[in-house]
Amino acid sequence: MARSKSSASRSTPASGRSGTIRLISGQWRGRKLPVHDVEGLRPTTDRVKETLFNWLATEVRDSRCLDVFAGSGSLGFEALSRYAGYVMMIEQEPKAARQLQQNLQTLQCEQAQIVCRDAIQVLQNPCSEPFELVFLDPPFRKNLLLQVIPLLEQQGWLAKRALIYLERENEGEAPEIPPNWQLLKDKQAGQVRYQLYLRESTTE
User: Fold this and answer.
1) How big is the CA angle at 185 (ends 96 and 21), to the nearest 5 degrees?
2) Is residue 9 assigned to a domain?
3) Is 54 a residue whose pLDDT tops 50?
4) How many domains would you assign to the chain?
5) Domain that holds residue 179
6) Is 53 helix (H, G, I), strand (E, B) or coil?
7) Residues in Cβ contact with 164 at an 8 Å cutoff, skipping those fewer than 6 apart
8) What is the pTM assigned to this prediction?
9) Is the dihedral of CA 51, 196, 188, 170 positive or negative?
C-alpha cells in the first residue's frame, strides 16, 4: 500500500518518485494518481507491488480487502483496479486521507471506504465482516506490527483463510507471528522485507 510520522501512514521514501502512484494492472492499468506531499510518505515500490500482486493473481477479484496503514493508497487502489469487491483503507493523517477520498472520486469508485483514524484504535473494535485480504505496511521502526497482528486475530478482522501481506524493515526484531499463520512467500528488496501469510482458523 506510504508513510507519514503518524501511526497510520508508511515511513521514508523508497520509490524515489514522490507525487504520484501508478496502477500496474486491471481496469485502471497505467493510471497515475496524485499523492499528498506528507513528510515521510513511503509508497510501496512498483517492483515490490508487482511481485505481491503476482502472488495474489487469483485472490483479489471480489475479495474484501483491508489496507491497515493506507498512506498513498498504492496497495488498496491496486486491489480495486484488479476488481476487489470492497477495500477499507485506514489512514490517520487527515491530508493523506483527503487525497485518498479525492482519488476514489476521480476513479468514480464506490467499492471502497476511507477511515481517517488511528489504525490501532480502529482494530481494537470487533469486526462483524472479516476480511479475506489484509495489507500491513506500517511506519518503519515503530514496532506497530507487534500491536496490530494480535488485534486482527482477537477482534475477528480475519476471514478463516485470510491472506496477510507484511512489509517491514529488514533489520531489527521480527514480529511474533500467530501459530495459525502459514508463511507462503518471503522476499527482500534492499532494506525492505515483504512476506505473505495464509491464516488458518483456530476453531473448527
Assistant:
1) 25
2) no
3) yes
4) 1
5) 20-199
6) helix
7) 134, 136, 152, 158, 181, 196, 197, 198, 199
8) 0.87
9) positive
Q: Are 120 and 147 in contact (CB under 8 A)?
A: yes
Residues 63-122 pLDDT 10s: 999 999 999 999 999 999 999 999 999 999 999 999 999 999 999 999 999 999 999 999
In a domain, 13, yes or no: no
> What is the per-residue pLDDT across 173-193, written as a single tens digit (0 to 9) for each?
789 999 999 999 999 988 899
Residue 179 grid coordinates: 501459530
Rounded to an integer, what distance in angstroms lies between the CA atom of residue 167 and that of residue 110? 27
Please give the DSSP secondary-structure letter assigned to residue 46: H
Q: Write the DSSP symbol of residue 39.
A: T
Q: Please spell the DSSP secondary structure of 79-125, one letter per residue.
A: HHHTT-SEEEEE--SHHHHHHHHHHHHHHT--SEEEE-S-HHHHHTS
Grid cell of 167 as nine digits: 512489509
Separation CA 194–CA 48 (nearest Å)? 8
- Residue reference for cell 488498496: 76
- And the C-alpha cell for 160? 478463516
148, HSE (Cβ side, Cα atoms, 13 Å): 26
CA distance 190 to 114: 30
